[in-house]
Amino acid sequence: MTGLSAQGITIKRLDEIKSELDSSLQLVFGTELSLDPSSPEAQLNGIIAEQISQLYELAQAVYVGMNPNFSTGNMLDLVSQIRGVDRNEETATVADVTFTGLAGITIVAGSKFTATGLDGITFSLQNDTVIDALGFGYGRVSCNTLGKVIVPALTITGIISPTYGLESVSNPLTGITGNEQETDEIFRIRSNASVALPGTALLDSVYASIANVDEVEQLVVLENDTSTIDVNGVSPKSMLAVVQGGTDEDIAEAIFLKKSLGCGMDGAITVSISDINGLPHDIRFSRPVNIPIFISVEVKELAEWDAAVIENIKQLLYDFATTSQSVAGTTYNGYQMGDDVYASQLYASLLNENTYAINSLFVGIAAIPAGSSVPISFSELATFDIINISVVSVA
Length: 395
What we know:
Layout: E1 3-5, E2 8-10, H1 14-29, H2 40-65, H3 73-82, E3 94-101, E4 106-107, E5 112-115, E6 122-125, E7 129-130, E8 136-143, E9 156-159, E10 166-170, H4 184-194, H5 202-211, E11 216-224, E12 238-245, H6 248-258, E13 264-266, E14 269-274, E15 280-285, E16 289-292, E17 294-301, H7 308-322, E18 325-327, E19 330-332, E20 341-342, H8 343-347, E21 356-364, E22 373-374, E23 380-383, E24 389-394
Helix pairs in contact: 1-2, 4-5, 5-6
């Protein structure tokens, strides 16, 4: 039986629908009715059958879309809202800037600036900034293009919005890079984990509670129920949460709400949380240790080579390592906590180019890498920066 039933949904295929329409016509007008594919009746049935088939496929898509394990895009957002979980949206890169100019002048919020090497991208001042008596002012700008926009130190120097008395602007430090929108794959994991919130199992409940904290990107929760320190270094009868993203206070509150009585806690960060009686409790957790990865590539120049290809290679490697990418039909979500880094994986981002051939690709934690892999522990996160990617070409 086709349609929706207690067993799920079953749809009719195009050829099945066409055959039923043909049979219905012959039932009414007789079997002598010609339904040769070139006949008007057969052509009309083909048009109607295609429309009905599309309706069946739409019904199936809606049905499947209600399952968070298979839904994507906006449907996954809607299903997850029922669970009280929202997708982490794109955030903007921000950078602290120093102004020089006439004492007493005000650079108004919204004033726009540019950065060297970032064509078409502008930055807006977040708050009014006054130049002090020494001729300096300090403010923060945010990128008007959301997502991972890398802003090296000393590159924000262009002034778009003219201000009387303003002489220069510069960012002394590298900006705090924004985040891309959470991918379906990562959001689905966090959404599915949230259903463990009402549970009583320590590990699942704590994981789900932390995963539901705003701006938490990824996490690991380990439990040691033995009487000795385990292989991960977790203390006896204790748990350890390693969390990227979110505020310390929100994470500690989420752990406190689900942590069982008497369970010890490991972690480098300690936050005091008060219970309903006002008594303080120390909640501990850790942040992942960032492991900067260096990449060295040697390529052979082919017929269509030009100097701009070197920067393109760097960008391809960086994007592959830090964002969601589809390469040769396989989806990569960038490196997550505990993901080892393999040179062979990075090759994948460079295979579709015809301007060069790859002679060698090495990874490591030293400025001149010479290895094929970098092991990353569960509490570490491989991080990437374009300035740590070296590309050399040979003719």
